Amino acid sequence: MLDIQTLCLRAGSFEAKQISFSVPVGGCHALVGATGSGKTLVLETIAGLRKAQSGRIYWFGQDITTLPPEQRKLAYVPQDLALFPHMTVRENIEYGLRMQKNLSSGKHAEIDKLAHSLGISHLLDRSTKNLSGGERQRTALSRALAPGNKLLLLDEPFSALHEAMRRELWLLLKTLQQQYGITILIVTHDMEEAFFLADSVTFISRGSVVQSGNKHHVYQCPKNTEAAKFFGVQNLFSAEVVDLMADKVKLFCPSLGTTLHVTNTSSEQLQKKSAVTVGIRAENIVLKAESSVDESDHLVGANQFFCTVKHIYQKRKGKILLLQPSKGTKMEILLEADIAGDSFGKIPAFFVGQELLISLPAEQLFLFVD
Ligand SMILES: Nc1ncnc2c1ncn2[C@@H]1O[C@H](COP(=O)(O)OP(=O)(O)OP(=O)(O)O)[C@@H](O)[C@H]1O
Fold first, then answer.
1. Which Gene3D superfamilies match (predicted)?
2. Is the C-beta atom of 11 inside 6 A of ligand 1?
């Protein structure tokens, strides 16, 4: 296991404090957070390029906190890849083994096999200067894996690549992980990448861990408003607690001009009149078919209200609608609804200015006290 225990570090005026998380052997863990939150500094400290102020780093039961980088038995691929431009692809890949004075004829065969697995056999004698982005990534991964270390640290490895190439390399990385039994710690901004590659995630903000755990749990139960925003809860609004019931909490949300019932929430920290934040993912907003809207508006009640369509964005499949609540506080509050292709049977056409009845299902609402 890679076990990071209460790691503290400093770079200039920036401090990362009490960073703790663990990655089981053979697992993949994603370190995520906004730009400047300290992800690279944490990775560099684990790699041994930066000194920890306090805390411990264990890899496979060994305390590696103070070991020099070359004794940590790990591979590190920095954001800029740091390929040697004056060397060929093969010389780059062999570099680590040469440093370890471990380049036997058997190792040459292993490198050929590794290059084959990474699809760069035909590039081995080329200079790294004119490689494409994807070829550079494959070369950097080969160089990292060649010495046979089983812990791979990757700093935003695929961020500069276009979507199709990124997906191809995700699949390649998964295959290599299984083939070579590698444990991976990856820094990424990209939630899709984190969810595709990793089993667990740690979200850090301003140098502190906000939430760490299984990726599904973190996605389904973000700990606070900041984590919710980061994990894709696009719609977040201030509200006030009106009533606490056994199975739900009743809120009033001025910006939406409506009463909301929220289930799936613990009311322990709540009191009547508590200020809270309520949120919903864009894909969980439900549009009601026009035929179900009664002229007397009797359908409009808790969790259901009319909105006007302000903007429509086309997606590859479906649409994003930006909706203004008709009875809200008339501030420029917009709800983002992500309408999948299969909803079009209900409402065949959308247009700006259209009035729609929407529903925010009580069990899909998040409630935060922060
Ligand atoms: N050597 C340094 N001296 C002073 N400050 C530094 C140094 N290195 C990094 N920082 C600062 O520390 C903070 C965290 O940097 P870090 O590179 O870890 O962020 P990050 O989360 O990896 O960001 P990004 O996602 O943009 O790469 C930033 O504010 C950065 O400017």
1. 2.40.50.100, P-loop containing nucleotide triphosphate hydrolases
2. yes
